[in-house]
């Protein structure tokens, strides 16, 4: 990039020193609750499946929220496979994760799980069971906090570890003072 003059009426950014860099979007308040109304008529069909497998931290409301967030309750055929093409089903599991947890709890899946298996509607109850077991496995690093469990579900349990780049900041998780990797808008694991 080339150096340009500061536009009229603008203030030059302050000089930075080690530990003083502010991340873009740092005005985001991760501690503030966000409310989202679910009025998707496609979601009702998942209630019996969720009720069957919800337990512990994988509550019915948590599992329903994952289904809404991940696939919009499979409202359209394009919602069956995740945008990255690596996950599928109502709860957008990857085959790798699903194969790890397929025999946990009451899931009892013996076949190899593929994107096709996850996409097939007849397997959706079992995929919800597998997702519930995955969520329960995250408590070791993510604890019981719903925000941490959701972050761990989406990016792996390691993202619940303490952040190196935001080590001077305080987490909004009452039971954990250090900011976690997922809470830091810029987390550089090399630091």
Short description:
This protein is mostly helical and 191 residues long. It has seven helices and no strands.
SSE blueprint and pairings:
Elements: H1 47-53, H2 60-71, H3 95-101, H4 115-119, H5 124-137, H6 139-142, H7 146-155
Helix pairs in contact: 1-5
Mean pLDDT: 80
Sheet/helix structural class: mainly alpha
- Main sheet specs: none
Written as H for each helix and E for each strand, in order along the chain, the element string is HHHHHHH
Q: Count of DSSP helices?
A: 7
Poorly predicted spans? 1-25
Rough outline? globular
Number of strands: 0
Could you tell me the strand content as a percent range?
Answer: under 5%
Radius of gyration from the CA trace?
Answer: 20 Å
Helicity level: 25-40%
The quaternary state of the protein chains shown equals single chain
Distance, first to last CA: 26 Å
Please tell me about this protein's structure.
It is a single chain. With 191 residues, this protein is an all-alpha fold. Helices cover 31% and strands 0% of the residues. The chain is built from seven helices and no strands. The longest helix has 14 residues, at 124-137. The radius of gyration is 20 Å and the shape is globular. The two termini are 26 Å apart. Mean pLDDT is 80; it is low at 1-25.
């Amino acid at each position: 990039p080339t150096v340009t003059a500061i536009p009229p009426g603008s203030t030059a950014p302050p000089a930075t020193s080690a530990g003083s860099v502010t991340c873009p979007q740092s005005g985001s308040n991760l501690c503030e609750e966000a409310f989202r109304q679910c009025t998707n008529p496609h979601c009702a069909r998942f209630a019996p499946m969720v009720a069957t497998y919800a337990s512990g931290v994988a509550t019915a409301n948590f599992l329903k929220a994952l289904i809404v967030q991940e696939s919009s309750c499979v409202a359209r055929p394009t919602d069956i496979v995740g945008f990255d093409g690596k996950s599928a089903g109502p709860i957008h599991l990857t085959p790798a994760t699903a194969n790890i947890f397929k025999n946990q709890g009451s899931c009892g899946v013996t076949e190899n799980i593929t994107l096709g298996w996850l996409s097939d509607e007849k397997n959706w109850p079992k995929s919800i069971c597998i997702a519930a077991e995955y969520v329960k496995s995250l408590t070791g690093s993510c604890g019981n906090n719903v925000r941490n469990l959701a972050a761990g579900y989406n990016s792996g349990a390691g993202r619940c570890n303490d952040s190196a780049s935001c080590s001077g900041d305080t987490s909004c998780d009452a039971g954990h003072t250090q900011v976690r990797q997922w809470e830091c808008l810029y987390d550089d694991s090399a630091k």
